[in-house]
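[step 3/7] inverse_fold.run input=structure_tokens len=126
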């Protein structure tokens, strides 16, 4: 089992930046692809970004490409989402997720992830 805990959410003005962190328990974090998703009330969960086990491969939703950067520090069992040029439409609860198939490629479908954090709220004011 892997437990994921997100942090770093908050309230920010449009155009601002935030960095989300997701820290994982367990010794196998470094072997897992990780993803960030977001969800607003009444909408389906939306893919944001994903990264492979080594950090050498990343994948972004078109809506965040060029503004968000996913990265990881396997020594700290942590994956990050650096968000810049934030827009009001980025407002959502952000979730990190882990794919337990070791050494897999980053993926955009939420049903391909096995472990989820509790989420952290990001609110962007206009």
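[step 3/7] decode complete -> sequence:
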């Amino acid at each position: 089992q892997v437990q994921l805990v997100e942090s770093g959410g908050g309230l920010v003005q449009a155009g601002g930046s935030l960095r989300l962190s997701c820290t994982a328990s367990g010794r196998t974090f470094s072997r897992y692809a990780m993803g960030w998703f977001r969800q607003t009330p009444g909408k389906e969960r939306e893919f944001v970004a994903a990264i492979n086990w080594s950090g050498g491969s990343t994948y972004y939703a078109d809506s965040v490409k060029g503004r968000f950067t996913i990265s990881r520090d396997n020594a700290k069992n942590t994956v990050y989402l650096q968000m810049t040029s934030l827009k009001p439409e980025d407002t959502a609860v952000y979730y990190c997720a882990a794919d337990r198939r070791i050494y897999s490629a980053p993926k955009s479908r939420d049903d391909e992830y096995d472990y989820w954090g509790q989420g952290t709220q990001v609110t962007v004011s206009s």
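[step 4/7] annotate
The radius of gyration is 13 Å.
The mean pLDDT is 96.
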